[in-house]
Amino acid sequence: MFAELKTLLVRQLKLDESLIRPESSLEDAGVDSLALVELGLLVEQHLGIAFSEEELARTASLTVGQFSDLLAARRQGLQEVPS
């Protein structure tokens, strides 16, 4: 799932690939509040995984790796977003 997420971040959001590491925070990878909303839409379009606005806001504090793990869990039908 990390590779798919990284592809979205680099190709669709035009973020610097060198900043996208599992241990990087989403913010450090270049995902600001506007990019987070756009990422939510891209994840839904490309991966079929939807987040409510509230859930998406709570993901802002995650690392890229944690967000990737969350996407994998969502794909498997688990719905919990860390608070």
TrEMBL record:
Alphabetical list of InterPro entries matching this protein: ACP-like_sf (IPR036736), PP-bd_ACP (IPR009081)
Span of domain Carrier: 1-75
Any coiled-coil regions, as ranges: none
Superkingdom assignment: Bacteria
Any Pfam family the entry gives: PP-binding
Name of the protein this chain belongs to: Carrier domain-containing protein
